[in-house]
Design a protein that fits this description.
four-stranded antiparallel β-sheet; globular; alpha+beta; single chain; 481 residues; 14 strands; five-stranded mixed β-sheet
Length: 481
Amino acid sequence: MTITLTVSEVRQALQRAAGRKPAGEGSPSTALLGTMFHRVISELLQDDTEWNVASVVRDLEPDLEEWKKVLTGHTYDRLLGPLLTNQAGSLRDHGIQVMNLWKAVQDAAQWFADLWWQITEHGTKSMSPSDWFRVESQVVRELRQPDWTESVSLLGQMDAVLRIPGEDHWCVLEWKLGQTSPVIDIAQACLYHLMLTCGETAGGSSALAVVSFQPGRHEALFQSTQFAEAQGRLLNLIGQMAGVTGPRSTRAAVDNRVISIDPEAPAAAVNAALNAAGVSNAGVSTANSRPAAVSCVTSDTANPAGPPEAWLSETRDRILRVLRKFGVPCRESRPPVIGPTFVRFSLFPDGGIRQKKVLSGAPELHLHLGLPAEPVMSVVDGTIAIDIPNPQRESVAFSSLLPWLPETDETLGCSRVPVGIDLSRRWVWCDLAGSESPHMLVVGTTGSGKSQWLRAAVASLIRTNTPDTLQLLLIDPKQNA
């Protein structure tokens, strides 16, 4: 059976090994602003939009400075400005980050104007962005090594691939906004390059480039010969994570070990991260470690049986039929993920179908599948994730949580409580002392488990604290908890 991993999962494993804090330069940004930045870049290079760089400069005089001025104004008026207006409430406290985003977008627009000036030979040739760029490409590649017990399907969504028309030269492009993690960014680009060299894009001379806007532009370009060894070791890490490198059949975790890196040496930098992850040239380390903050749940923490195979196959086929009937044909991209209360089906839209159109199909699936509510549909790791209620909902015993409780600190105590188990059967934690979650609102229908969760949260606090580090004030208006 093919094991499925995503590029995001491999990136997260390297982040845990390298330490969570970014090691690069630049001003910190937010996930929302990063999404906006990537959306603007995509619109400038997409072929099916009137806002791309070619459409904007097509009727202008061949004057580079004029191109830069017009494209910069267009990028704000048509692309970034509406996004900022729609998210004004969420961005109220991020004025500096928004200003840095605008500076980055300005720099990107002028860079693309300069790039398009060169591509069109000073505006004398008519070109389409699709002649040169593949933007936000979804890639699925099956990988296999001689010592693996199973093949591994790796999924991801690249920022862009640049290919010179009529020539055998191509380059993987990764865009980054704000403070970067140079090693992790290079490793991610290495993964996408590896996926392409295993597929139809193989051949010719190739490279990868990480272009970061911090907000000023910084470019790092590497030829394929510079990271060939690192890609081999990334394959070892993938094999370790998928659990296919030996007799073990469960995925391995990568522990937290802080490392020092050199962003100017791509092979050495990625190799340092892989050393910290316990991956050698010859094989994979099997050293055990204490679970990280979000820890993998072992197979005996919850009943993994889940719904029968027949239900999974039938539900998948019904989802695909409904979407096809309404003009959004898709295909399954990875096996269903069975969580305690939901089953996640992952799909890729067929060629020419935009993700937004697939995501609009939730009401139709609600009706035609006879679900109690609309399914939750989202883009996760470059795939369309559809979460359907598990017909055989599982209970998770508190005893299964005990091995994963944080260590007790008799001086500072522990403010982390378990939120629950995610679809990947990993414990998710909330730090009540953290600035992002000082309050929690737990909602649900009668009998859905709100009181049981509260008891588990209180019990976990009691187990990880002492009378000197924990005080509880409990108010129970109904007096039946």
